[in-house]
Write a structure and sequence with these properties.
Distance between the termini: 29 Å
Strand order of the largest sheet: 3-2-4-1-5-6
Structural class: alpha/beta
Radius of gyration: 16 Å
Largest sheet: 6 strands, mixed
Number of strands: 6
Strand content: 15-25%
Number of helices: 7
């Protein structure tokens, strides 16, 4: 089977560089416009079955790209709960001390939020659940719209563990294709698209 994981378009929080977590913010006008421009340049893959995080920025993205909602909403694919950090500004996640502490102390939860390991395990179990749902329906292809950190957790665990969590490139609107063995349900190959997003 093939699973196409798509990161949601730019949200209002992405645009203002504030911690979002599970705060249910919509796409920004700029994000909607950018996603529609992507549709003019790139043909998104179709699926036999469609999954999405239940948060608005993902369900809106799915509707913009495909013109319909998800067959299955996956609470396991919600972004990590960032507790007291949600709504606070950041400049660059790669050097933000809160983000680095969250990665560096994986068993320590952010106050009122999740630890990195709790979040990671939730996302991994969600992926296993999704693969089982696809197999149960005898589907060959699936599309899942989700959040950047969820994609990173899945890619690190199932695609290539040698790539650290925070080094996976996940542009808004970007796609990762995972080829999965029907027999072992393991990822046998992966790729990203469209190239012009990942080559920036």
């Amino acid at each position: 089977m093939k699973i196409y994981m798509i990161r949601h378009a730019l949200s209002t929080s992405n645009g203002s560089h504030t911690w979002t977590g599970q705060t249910d913010v919509p796409l920004s006008e700029a994000g909607i416009a950018a996603q529609k421009e992507l549709l003019k340049k790139y043909n998104y893959p179709e699926g036999d079955i469609y999954f999405s995080s239940p948060l608005l920025r993902c369900t809106q993205t799915l509707d913009i790209i495909y013109g319909h909602g998800a067959d299955i909403l996956m609470p396991e694919f919600m972004e990590c709960s960032l507790g007291i950090l949600e709504g606070r500004p950041y400049t660059n996640l790669n050097d933000d001390p809160n983000y680095l502490a969250w990665i560096g102390e994986p068993d320590k939860p952010i106050p009122n939020g999740e630890s990195f390991n709790t979040f990671r395990e939730r996302a991994e179990l969600g992926f296993i659940k999704m693969v089982s749902a696809i197999a149960d329906r005898n589907a060959k292809t699936a599309v899942a719209v989700m959040h950047g950190n969820v994609m990173r957790a899945i890619l690190h665990r199932f695609a290539d563990a040698s790539v650290p969590h925070d080094e996976w490139k996940i542009p808004n609107g970007g796609v990762y294709r995972l080829d999965i063995s029907d027999e072992t349900r393991e990822v046998t190959a992966w790729s990203s698209a469209p190239g012009f997003l990942f080559d920036r």
